[in-house]
Write a structure and sequence with these properties.
By secondary structure, the protein is mostly helical. The chain is 75% helix and 0% strand. It starts with 17 loop residues before the first helix and ends with a helix.
Length: 299
């Protein structure tokens, strides 16, 4: 989830129905897939810090333009700058690791390991937000852990830095989501998005300069840079819209269709094999997510 995808525990009143939610999720799945391909294509010329810089600058322009047109500029003011900073440190780290993993392991494997984000949210919420650690959350975590083992297959195939990066990216996204949940009590979505794009543009630029590789991108990379910038924002909007159309218990399983789509994309564009183990492991992770969603909804 490359951007803050909904937690498995989230739920909202339905306004539109499953069909409308499915249409919105189609947009989200397409946006995530475009981001993944763009990230893979840019890796040959740009490092992750440069990708994050350009991605965030494009997002900042779009968010600021919307704020000006919609009269939301007054919402820039925040009384919780430290929490915004914490949230974006986690998200920046997670997003960098996600782009790094995209360049060195199969796209389907990155997406499968990213599906563990809601499970990390469920495990960390008791520590961060004081929520109760239920038996269902523990069961979901166990299923997710087994799913990780099936996807990574330690002992059968070599587990390298790419798999660890994808898994740590999921942890970073989970911490970012928990921070977002805390911020949403006082901040609007536009405020959170504005500070996200601004802070991460500064972080990306600072890291790229320190790294010594900051340079203007080749002209051939401009379409991919725009695709990454637009993809992150459209995915966020589509997921939020899907959650207003149907409960999370319906929306969350739809996200699983990202995996077969990106697996086919990886096969067609990069000759990546369609591996049954990745689908089996991802299925276990998704089952854990669905169990957690239904338990949270009943509770």
């Amino acid at each position: 989830m490359a951007d803050d995808a909904p937690s498995a525990a989230a739920d909202t009143p339905a306004r539109g129905g499953p069909l409308v939610a499915a249409l919105w999720m189609t947009g989200a799945i397409g946006s995530f897939s475009v981001m993944a391909v763009a990230g893979r294509e840019m890796a040959s010329d740009l490092d992750t810090f440069e990708i994050m810089t350009y991605r965030s600058l494009i997002g900042l322009v779009l968010v600021a333009t919307f704020g000006l047109v919609a009269g939301r500029v007054s919402e820039i003011r925040t009384h919780r700058p430290r929490l915004h900073l914490v949230r974006n440190i986690f998200h920046f780290a997670g997003q960098n690791l996600w782009f790094y993993a995209l360049a060195i392991i199969p796209l389907a494997q990155v997406f499968a390991l990213e599906f563990t984000t809601p499970l990390w949210v469920a495990l960390l919420a008791p520590l961060v937000l004081g929520e109760r650690l239920t038996r269902t959350r523990l069961l979901a975590a166990v299923l997710g852990f087994v799913g990780i083992l099936v996807v990574a297959r330690p002992g059968v195939t070599e587990v390298g830095i790419g798999q660890y990066a994808a898994l740590l990216a999921a942890v970073g996204f989970a911490c970012s989501y928990l921070s977002t949940k805390a911020l949403s009590d006082t901040e609007t979505v536009w405020t959170i998005m504005f500070w996200m794009t601004l802070l991460q543009a500064i972080m990306g630029l600072a890291c790229a300069v320190v790294d010594g590789d900051m340079a203007l991108p080749p002209m051939a990379q401009l379409p991919w840079i725009v695709a990454v910038g637009l993809g992150g924002l459209t995915a966020h909007v589509c997921i939020a819209s899907a959650l207003t159309a149907a409960p999370a218990s319906i929306v969350a399983p739809m996200d699983f269709f990202r995996l077969p789509l990106i697996a086919v994309v990886g096969m067609l564009l990069y000759d990546e094999p369609l591996e049954a183990a990745i689908f089996a492991g991802a299925a276990l992770i998704v089952i854990g997510n669905v169990l957690n969603v239904r338990a949270e909804r009943r509770r």
